[in-house]
Amino acid sequence: MASTASSTASARPGRAGRSAWTVILCWITVLLEGYDLVVLGAIIPTLLKTQHLGMTAGDATTIATLSLVGVAIGAVSVGPLADWLGRRLLLISSVVVFSLFTILVPLADSVAMFALLRLVAGLGLGACMPVSLTMMAEHMPAERRAQASTLTMTGYHTGAVLISLLALQVTDNWQVLFYVLGVIGFVVAGVQWFRLPESEAFVRAKQAAGERRVPFTELLKPAYLRAGIGVWVASFMGLLLVYGLNTWLPKLMNDAGYPVPTAVTQLLVLNLGGVFGLVLGGLVADRRGIKGTAVVWFGAAFLMLACLSIKMDSDLLLNTVVFLTGVFVFSAQVLVYAYVTSFYPAAVRGTALGSASGIGRLGSIIGPSVTGALVTAGVGHPWGFYFFAAVAVLGLLAVLTLPRPAEGARADGTETTG
Is residue 212 over pLDDT 60? Predict the structure, then answer.
């Protein structure tokens, strides 16, 4: 008994160390995704002002859309690839792919090549967030489901904040932003190769006899269909807001009459609010309930987006409204993922989260496309914010249809009686 206790104690530091590396490296990977997916929005005003490669607003919309198409394809493909290759190898490979093609973007000699490089980079990028969220969830206590999702996603907005700060410094030398991301990505991949352990859950699943995957049709059964439809619609609306704002906010602000430095600064303020909102949202949701918190968050997002349709003369007022927009918009979306982890039992949780992410990615494509069309038509402000406010209302209505998490699964993954 003494020897067993001793060996258990001696194993704990090693396990704790592996867990710490998993948390750190997954968080940094999500940070890189936040950096990458906001970088285009930060430089679009400069690209259009300088007419880089003869780029027009329509071209910028196409590039933004193709970038997100690549991300969506990567996200949809991640499930079977992770089951086959393992989560560790898939995550490292994905980081390498998007880092390589990101470095090549400034070297593009045409708009078409620029768009193609962003598309391929998106393929690698799309796999990063789902795998990172999965690995993080497997290293967090079950009773902290909401915080596990929201704290992980602070990495995304930290990356967005960093790119906003860098964009203010480099001004017209936007190429530096892509070189920095690519180099850092390669460094992260190298550290992951030596320090990131394979998911213990993946190893156990590979070793378990008779392990079977749950089909998507399981989510269409009466016990889950109501929740599924609500989650899919809410995730679609949430990601539409997240990607639409991060891609086009500087241009919308510029169209409203704010100078380019002020417009780009709003991207920084928006994502600072996002980081604060994620921490706050996770804490409130774990204490007060995920569904109720998500309803309040989507409602507050509607109010803030409606306010942004009005030109503000006070910088303090503008910064406050943009900050609060970030607080509520970004964490409202992540609370939808937290709801999935709390409602569905373990047997279908992965399938449910994958479907929510995949369908939500359609919103991430449509949001920038619709907003880009409004910008091209010359009505980006105020109609872009009218559009976003309406989307927030639809997200709120979708959350209202969701059954309470207690009707689905306990925190430990077992069925409840309702």
Answer: no
